[in-house]
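thread: overnight batch results

M.L. [08:02]
morning all. the overnight job finished for the chain we discussed friday. pasting input first so we're all looking at the same thing
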Amino acid sequence: MKKFLAAVALVTGFSMQPVMAGETMAPEGASVYFISPHDGDAVKGPVKVMFGLSGMGVAPAGTDKEKTGHHHLFVDRAPFGEGPDGAEEANENIPSDEHHRHFGGGQTETTLDLAPGKHTLQLVVGDKDHIPHDKPVVSPQITITVE
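M.L. [08:03]
and the structure it wrote out:
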């Protein structure tokens, strides 16, 4: 079995070494932000969300290029680094579920179908492996109201 896995690793380029979290350095001064909506906005659904990134480039997941990353949108959850698992969050792969939306294709916008009411949104940039950078690039959490 070990020989088989080693052969698969050699052919596919897959590393059998575990990915170490938070090893990708963020460029000094990099920031991620919402182009729209803005904190406190009342919007009609579906909600178009546009992401901005400054001081670094956008690259699809799996792309190993210095000073790049891709967007993750946190929806209706505690701010990044807070909550029961907050201390470990900067060192782990960002999960993929209804509260953690991945844009590993390099997308810079999306449309969300959110129920009427208040919702929180936050952007987190992940490296090629969906892990926040060393000095995480994170937007402030915003609150919007869907009418």
